[in-house]
Design brief:
single chain; Jelly Rolls; Chondroitinase Ac, Chain A, domain 3; Rhopdopsin 7-helix transmembrane proteins; six-stranded antiparallel beta sheet; elongated; disulfide bond; PTX_dom; transmembrane; AGRD1 protein; G protein-coupled receptor activity
């Protein structure tokens, strides 16, 4: 964290504040104003000015001059303090680039301005700090906009900004309240730092941790405050330093997926049985999630046959770490709440007395539409409880095409031919000691799980198709037999719709909503009737078309037919005959196989050709009846180009762009789900429209 601070462009420690650690050199002296020896001057009126030198083209004074690296401003802030160090600074209209910090009773905000071709304004709001020292850091990049971090955690963003026409109030304060009657409030700043680059979320956390030596950070759901239990930054205990080092040893290398997974499993199974502080627990969780992120970026495991087993092993490894955190976390001051987010998941580590829970349920995460809720009645006794939760961002994408026979979901296994896919985020929670839940799903207390669905367009189309029946299961990964198997034991879906589901469960583990789309099956007598009509009708059609073609061939051999109409009839009959014959053959093939795909392409071509020759028939009749004179000249080349050439072009384009759309909809034909059917419907509708004309 102090290495991050050492990379700053400018640094003003200001006053010596208890609980906020400053950067000192090797002699123990405070480093004042890095780069250009920046200084601060306090005027008689109590206003403090920070000087960083004269840089007209600097990213600091002219944000639109920032390169892609961006800029970062950091400071500690508190309000309603009678002994304010930094009183409000007043100024005129905002006509230059820069930023201002505002506060009122219910909201704090950061406003960031650039003045290039147009005045742009970015604004992000957050909870005001109150009478406690609170760390506020914001970064700005032209392509990312404004990001505000409060106490080391991303609080709010404004990625787009907007054109700003009113260049500020008549008297904007650096720290003041907004309203009809503006009034200044007492406040203080400390540790003002500028980086001429945007810090990463990891660097923000590192600097914040070092600056406050934080061991206990109360959640944003509780009153804003920092509780520091040490006077120096807390480092991980010696027992866990080798673990953190081992987790970072693959960073930057290119290991194989199997070796990295094996490494993570070894580390998780060899965690020391030692107590760990909140800070160490947070570091351990962050290190594991960073390693998981690195694993997910590897591509050599995704499409392999072992990918489901690999993924369940990965989640089991994370569960092992969560269980370890819940068992060994200690806290000298409770409640202890550590929350954060990474590219892999949102996470929380909580330790508290059950009596301190002043609401009817504990909820993780505290915000959002996907969460787990544990009733207060499930926490018995006076012993401290530890809760560790994870809400995964992207893992559900890897759980698709699950074989129903590989699950312990009886209803899903009854539909063997219909695969299962995860249709919600994956959420996990561990509680130690375990909450006392009802064994009966009709009793209480039970945990409530609400998960928003993350349906792909194809899944949504399948679900809305009335010829399908949609089954949604509240499921979890069951590791009782060693490997992770999806099961619905001890869970029931209480309610929901296509957008979300609400589940009740009597145990804790990894949860997700699984979706299975099952085509509706016709009764046996209907199937017999349909197949009889199809076979008899197609057979009669093929017989009559064959007689027609034989008649044309016989008459053509005695040279009595030279008319173009008969050529058109013959080609139309040939296209329909071949299409009907292929249709009968397609009933004998299994969907999604290569022969089925080939037959689907041929069916597409010959049925399109039938419509194309109908179009030729219309053109020819038009030329015969309307344009009588000159209508008998040969147009064979044009007719054959329309009748066989156009369908061929359409089929080639369709097959090369979306081969998977053929033979995937339960029969050897175009898919009805992803829009591929329009490659047949649109030309056919065009022919009908022209023919009607």
């Amino acid at each position: 964290g102090f290495r991050v601070l050492a990379s700053a462009s400018h640094y003003w420690p200001l006053a010596d504040v208890d609980g906020i650690h400053e950067f000192r050199d090797t002699h123990g002296d405070i480093v004042e104003g890095m780069v250009n020896k920046g200084i601060y001057v306090t005027e008689k009126k109590g206003v403090t000015f920070l000087f960083f030198g004269s840089y007209r083209n600097s990213c600091i004074s002219n944000p639109e001059a920032c390169g892609p690296e961006g800029v970062t401003f950091s400071f500690f802030w508190k309000t309603q303090d009678q002994q304010a160090k930094l009183l409000p600074a007043s100024g005129g209209r905002v006509v230059s680039s820069g930023f201002k910090i505002c506060s009122n009773e219910g909201e704090g905000s950061v406003e960031f301005y650039t003045r290039g071709n147009a005045m742009m304004k970015w604004k992000a709001s957050f909870s005001p700090p109150g009478p406690y020292w609170t760390h506020v850091l914001f970064t700005w990049r032209s392509r990312e906009g404004l990001k505000v971090y409060v106490n080391g955690t991303l609080s709010t963003t404004d990625p787009e900004g907007k054109v700003f026409y009113d260049y500020g109030d008549a008297s904007p304060d650096l720290l003041g309240t907004e309203g009809a009657a503006p009034r200044s409030v007492s406040g203080a700043f400390d540790e003002f730092v500028i980086w001429e680059r945007a810090l990463s979320p990891r660097e923000v956390r590192q600097y914040f941790t070092a600056a406050v030596g934080v061991q206990v950070l109360l959640s944003s759901t509780l009153p804003w405050s920092l509780v520091t239990t040490t006077t120096r930054p807390v480092l991980p205990t010696n027992a866990y330093q080798p673990v953190l080092a081992a987790l970072g040893q693959h960073r930057g290398s290119s290991p194989s997926a199997s070796s990295l997974l094996g490494h993570l499993q070894n580390v998780s199974s060899s965690l020391p049985s030692k107590a760990l502080s909140g800070h160490t627990a947070l570091s351990l969780a962050q290190a594991f999630l960073a390693a998981i992120e690195e694993f997910l970026l590897l591509s050599d495991w995704i499409d392999g046959p072992e990918s489901p087993a690999v993924l369940s092993s990965l989640i089991h490894t994370i569960d092992t770490v969560l269980a370890h955190l819940s068992l060994h976390l200690e806290g000298s001051e409770l409640p202890l709440t550590l929350e954060g987010s990474s590219a892999v998941a949102d996470y929380a580590v909580v330790k508290m007395h059950p009596q301190s829970l002043n609401v009817s349920h504990y909820r993780f995460p505290s915000r959002g539409h996907s969460y787990i809720s544990i009733p207060r009645a499930a926490f018995h006794g006076k012993a401290c409880i530890t809760i560790v939760g994870l809400l995964y961002h992207n893992l559900h994408h890897f759980f698709n095409n699950i074989n129903p026979e590989d699950t312990r979901i009886a209803e899903a296994a009854a539909h063997r031919g219909s695969t299962i896919s995860a249709s919600s985020y994956l959420i996990s929670i561990k509680v130690e000691p375990r909450p006392q839940l009802s064994h009966n799903l009709s009793g209480s207390p039970l945990i409530t799980i609400q998960l928003s669905h993350t349906l792909t367009p194809r899944q949504y189309s399948q679900a809305l198709n009335k010829s399908n029946r949609v089954h949604l299961y509240c499921a979890f990964l069951d590791y009782s037999n060693g490997s992770g198997v999806w099961s619905d034991e001890g869970c029931v879906r209480q309610g929901g719709d296509l957008n979300s589901s609400v589940c009740l469960c009597n145990h804790l583990t990894n949860f997700a909503i699984l979706m299975q789309v099952v085509p509706l099956q016709l009764p046996r007598e209907h199937q017999v009737a349909l197949s009889s009509i199809t076979y008899i009708g197609c057979a009669l059609s093929i017989l009559c078309l064959t007689i027609t073609l034989v008649t044309f061939a016989v008459l053509s051999s005695v040279s009595t037919i030279r008319n173009q109409r008969y050529h058109i009839h013959a080609n139309l009959s040939s296209a329909v005959l071949l299409a009907q014959a292929l249709l009968l053959a397609s009933f004998q093939l299994s969907p999604a196989t290569l022969p089925c795909k080939i037959l689907a392409i041929l069916l597409h071509f010959f049925f399109l050709s039938a419509f194309a020759w109908m179009l030729v028939e219309g053109f020819h009749l038009y030329s015969m009846v309307i344009k009588v004179f000159g209508s008998e000249e040969s147009k064979h080349l044009y007719y054959y180009g329309i009748g066989w050439g156009c369908p061929l072009v359409i089929c080639v384009i369709s097959a090369t762009s979306s081969l998977d759309s053929y033979g995937e909809s339960g029969n050897c034909w175009l898919s009805l789900e992803d829009g591929a059917i329009w490659a047949f419907v649109a030309p056919a509708m065009f022919v009908i429209l022209v023919g009607t004309g």
